[in-house]
Structure formats: C-alpha cells, structure tokens
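Teaching note: in complex prediction, the entire set of molecules is handled at once rather than each chain in isolation. The prompt given to students was simply: 'Predict the structure of this complex.' The entities are:
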Amino acid sequence: SAASKSAFPIPANVFAETVTEVKHYTDRLFKFRITRPASFRFRSGEFVMIGLPNAERPVFRAYSVASPSWDEEVEFYSIKVPDGPLTEHLQKIKVGDTILMRKKPTGTLVNDALIPGKRVYMFSTGTGIAPFASLIRDPETYEKFDQVILTHTCREIDELKYGEELVEICNNDPLVGEFAKGRLIHYTSVTREDFPRMGRITDLMESGKLFEDLGVPPINPDVDRAMICGSMAMLNDTKDMLEKFNLVEGSNARPASFVVERAFVD
Ligand code: A2P
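The expected output is the structure of the full assembly:
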C-alpha cells in the first residue's frame, strides 16, 4: 500500500519498521505489531513516539508499548480518532506497511518507579490498558509483586475484548504463564451498557465493592502499590482516591507507592 513506500527520507533519530499484524476490535479500537529493531531497548510500561512515512514532516504521537521488553516484536493498542492527524491514517495500515518509531522510549509506569510491595494494582480505562499489556507480560512484575490486579473499565462491553485476549495470551505464554497463573487478576467493569459488573473504578473503590469482589483488604500503604492510566479526569479522581488510602505518588527519580500516566489519545 501507499504507506509502505516512503517517498521521504527517514530521519536519523527514528527507526522505520514493518507492520507484522493488524487486528481491529471495534470501529474505534485496533492493535498492531511491528518488527523490532535489534537496538531498541525499553522498560515494560514505557511509551515511544510513532508516526507514518507519508509526509516530509511526519506527525508523531506518543504510544505506550503494549508488548513486554523480551518480545521480538513491538505491539501498540490504538484508538481511531475521527480526523485525528495520525490515527486517521494509522487506522488504515496493513501488514507490510512501514511505521516510524523514534528511538528513545520514556515513561513513569515502570516497575522501577514503585517501591517493593505485596500487591500491585494497575488501574486502566479505555486504551489506558496498553502499558499494562506490557507489564503483565513481564516476569519482572511477578518477581516484584505476589499479586497483580489489572482493572479495566470501558464504556461498552466490546471495548474489553483486547484486555480479555491479552490476559488469555499472558496465561498461556510459555515464559510468563507460569508466573501469571493464579497471581494475575483481571477485573473488568462497564459503565454505559448492561454488564455483570457496572461502574467506574473510583466508585467501585469508594463503595468497597472492588475489595469485596477481590477478597482483599482495602488498600494499605504498607503492602499495596498502584499504577494508573486513563483520561485526565480518571487519573485525577483515581489519584485522589489512592491518596485517601495514604499512597504516595512516585517517579523514576523518587520511587514511591503509586505512579500515573495519561493514556495518549489524539
Ligand atoms: P463513564 O462512562 O461513566 O464516563 P473515556 O472514554 O471517557 O475515557 O471513558 C472510559 C471509561 O472511563 C468509561 O467507563 C468512563 O466512565 C470511565 N471514566 C471516565 N471518567 C472517569 C473518572 N473521572 N473517574 C473514573 N472513571 C472515569
């Protein structure tokens, strides 16, 4: 297709990689995988800038790497924004097309930014699940924590599909499956359609239903750690909630008991 033949030079600070898989989940959501350059190193949970080779000055957007750091390919999970400068083109990519990826990854949703604990909560809404798709497939996460609780809340049931498939892939993976079995818990809820569990994660936390459903005590700063990824409003409300449980926000420079990153949408 058109995107696979770049008429423009590839800048020195970007990799030009080949699309190996594209899967559409809903009319708004898709995942794609690309070849991984041998020199591309990242920590599970980080993000990188990606673009398409269709202009002299290509548009780049931040994308969380959804694959773990040991994977031989690189996976991304994307929304399709109507008239989005990148996603209007990106949603049309096919196997064999070229994707540009800036060489330097970064981000705060990394194991290194959390102090050790017993349990880690990964709170996500919508495409905010992407960095956790990387982290739940990284053995390091299970070396650091006994229990990994991935929460995913979406407006509609179909939007949970990527996460469900992900957890199944993770549990059946020859490398990570043994770590994840019985220790990775996938907790889903839906807010705008009938579903067995309904409600925002903040409300489920506030009412105590989350902890009842999981059979665990409420969040305790001595043992519990958390990572948050979603919209700005979700981030702020979840952060407030965690601070009420006396968790403290950390960073790469100052690891603490929770970390936050906006789900990139544009
Ligand atoms: P709701 O349907 O009640 O708005 P979005 O697509 O807007 O990012 O929403 C994804 C999911 O996150 C939806 O289920 C939405 O619930 C939920 N959500 C939106 N805002 C917040 C918030 N401030 N705190 C917690 N959850 C939120």
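Point out the following to students. The longest helix spans residues 232-244. The chain has a mean pLDDT of 95.
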